Amino acid sequence: MSKSPDATRRSERSRRAILDAALTLVGEVGYNKLTIEAIAARAGVGKQTIYRWWPSKAAVLLDASLSLSGEAVEEGGWTGFPDTGDLAADLKTVLRITVDQFLDERYDAPTRALTAAGATDPDLGTRFTEQLLEPQLALYEARLRTAVDAGQLPADTDLRLMVEMLVGPLTYRWLMRTAPLAHAHTDALVDVVLRGVGYVTTRPAAAGA
Amino acid sequence: MSKSPDATRRSERSRRAILDAALTLVGEVGYNKLTIEAIAARAGVGKQTIYRWWPSKAAVLLDASLSLSGEAVEEGGWTGFPDTGDLAADLKTVLRITVDQFLDERYDAPTRALTAAGATDPDLGTRFTEQLLEPQLALYEARLRTAVDAGQLPADTDLRLMVEMLVGPLTYRWLMRTAPLAHAHTDALVDVVLRGVGYVTTRPAAAGA
DNA sequence: GTATCAATGCGAGACGTCTCGTCTTTCATC
DNA sequence: GATGAAAGACGAGACGTCTCGCATTGATAC
Questions:
Q1: How confident is the model over B64-101, as pLDDT tens digits?
Q2: Full domain range(s) for residue A38
Q3: Which nucleotides of C are covered by protein (CB under 7 A)?
Q4: Are residues A33 and A88 in the same domain?
Q5: How many angstroms away from the CA of B36 is the closest CA of chain A?
Q6: Residue nearest to nucleotide D17 (CA to C1')
Q7: Within this chain, do residues A49 and A70 fall inside the same structural domain, yes or no?
Q8: B138-177 burial: b if 16+ Cβ within 10 Å, else e
Q9: Residue B26 sits in a domain of what CATH number?
Q10: Residue of chain A whose alpha carbon sits nearest to that of B189
Q11: 0.85 surpassed by pTM
Q12: Residue at shortest CA–C1' distance from C12
């Protein structure tokens, strides 16, 4: 039984110091040159304390990012997703915020690192997707569902596909650096997607589909 | 002058063996655990032969992928992009092929590894994008341009955005593993995008889709 | 034409260095 | 007196350089 140390005795102080150090360091040196030794040194903890509680540096960073997105939620007062009744405006607002996050080095570095690590490590990728990504996608989907209920979107809309059509192209441009990110870009994206799925501003409209 | 070995004396046999070994190994152990020593051993070449011609293991893998996509072009007889006059069908065809490639382990592993490595290593990422990605995106863009010229798409269509709307969501689902890939998925994607940009099959069409 | 020879890439692997993850020791806390 | 934590010693393994013969090449001499 080499496993499972007693979690109740765990030092919260050390935990936080480790997560903070990981976030800082990944921004300074990048993911590839991020070492557990450096995290331990910066956090003022022994290496073993990290190895005791996390299986890999990727896992540390995942926890760190989770706490980071937790903070963001509290700061921004994000209980959910804006719902002004104007779907187009709401989507543009959220995507603009996402663009801003991608452009914020503090957020960009760890997220990029995790995305990359998750792409090649199926285990980590699954946790990354389930714990960080899916909850966000679910917010989009919920907002879209209210639009369906309001008759602004066809009842048979593939919401999952629609969410990925909103998030996918932006994420693609960000990850691959094929072009600079801009608010105008996501605004145009929203317009094309909404038109593509048959969005109607107010009344049920007689046309198409 | 320690630089510039004589390229005319280079062993083509060794070059191919190295690229093949790199592709095989990256599928077996993943990018992170891929070592130049292992590539050399598998290829039956000396380490120095790799270090003489490539600056890093990432560069080896990039060359290997380039040769792989080169093969794919020859096999499929891809001189360009299908152009049957039916834009929707052509896009669906190409995206279905892309789905098949993503599902092919031989292609998936190295591409995934490179994408991930490129995401965190800006240098490599730039070369990856320029040499592998952009040429493919350019094929899409060219096909779309002929559609514009044929009056099937509005003259002011943002082709770049449109290409990313086609490729982005698929790549996203592939990388993040948020859902299984399927032909039906990309078919639906094409339909929404085309409707969103105002695609008309033949004549200017009056109806709302 | 063929024999010789210097130049250069190649396969093999030894070498010193670096960083990894584990193990050991000592102290603090419950 | 257990157990976690800080510090660092330790072996493992990959790095990139190097040194060796061997094979191939192109130039020169006969």
A1: 999 988 877 777 666 679 999 999 999 999 999 999 99
A2: 1-54
A3: 8-14, 19-24, 30
A4: no
A5: 17
A6: B48
A7: no
A8: eebeebbeebeeeebbeeebbbbbbbbbbbbbbbbbbbbb
A9: 1.10.10.60
A10: A161
A11: yes
A12: B46
Tokens of B60: 């080896």
Query: In which residue are the tokens 């690229």 written?
Result: B19
- Is A165 a member of any domain? yes
Gap from B203 CA to chain A (nearest CA, Å):
17
- Identify whether residues B49 and B66 lie together within a single domain: no
Q: Which nucleotides of D are covered by protein (CB under 7 A)?
A: 3-9, 13-19, 25-26
Residues A157 and A138 in one domain: yes
Among candidate residues B208, B78, B204, the one with its CA nearest the CA of residue B143: B78
Of B21, B36, B54, which residue sits at a domain end? B54
Together in a domain, B191 and B136: yes
CA A184 – CA A168 distance, rounded (Å): 16
The least confident of A73-87, A92-106, A164-178, A186-200 is A73-87
Using CA atoms, how far apart are residues A171 and A102, in angstroms rounded to an integer? 9
Write the residue in B126, B134, B165 that is nearest to A192 by C-beta: B165
- Cβ atoms B64, B111 nearer than 8 A: no
Is the distance from CB of B34 to CB of B60 less than 8 angstroms? no
Is residue B7 located within the same domain as residue B35?
Answer: yes
How many contacts, defined by CB atoms under 8 Å, are there between A and B? 142
What's the domain count of chain B? 2
- Same domain membership, residue A19 and residue A96: no
Chain B CB contacts of A119 under 8 Å are 112, 115-116, 119, 175-176
